[in-house]
Design brief:
This protein has 116 residues and is mainly alpha-helical. It is built from 5 helices and 2 strands. The chain has a single domain, classed as Winged helix-like DNA-binding domain superfamily/Winged helix DNA-binding domain (Arc Repressor Mutant, subunit A, Orthogonal Bundle).
Length: 116
């Protein structure tokens, strides 16, 4: 594959990753993700539990959870009137892996870089 073809693939990767990159690029959302990843709870956390651990307001947590959900990074499970948020294990974050691998392959092919 030539240089231009690989650059086209990387450009598509960037386009595919835009929502995820925007969602996880924010420090507040990163702290929410860390809370969700750090919990022992397999069923997810409620907004109040995330609020306690991040020291953010409920409206702020809700807003950031919506952004993360819209990007496919987290999922929500309803139980009656309660909503539980958890990391999407089949997440769009896999797109980031593809992007990094394609960039690494490009660098190896055209710049002799030992990779990332």
């Amino acid at each position: 594959m030539n240089k231009q073809d690989q650059l086209k693939i990387i450009k598509e990767d960037f386009i595919n990753c835009q929502k995820v990159l925007l969602a996880i690029g924010d420090e507040t959302r990163q702290s929410i993700l860390l809370v969700l990843m750090g919990t022992d709870c397999q069923t997810g956390l409620r907004v109040g539990e995330i609020t306690e651990q991040t020291h953010l307001s409920r409206p702020a947590v809700s807003h950031h959870l919506k952004v993360l959900r819209d990007a496919g990074v987290i999922l929500m499970r309803k139980e009656g009137t309660k909503n539980f948020y958890y990391i999407n294990v089949r997440t769009e974050l896999g797109l980031l892996r593809t992007l990094v691998l394609d960039i690494d392959k490009f660098m190896q092919n055209f710049y002799g870089n030992d990779g990332i």
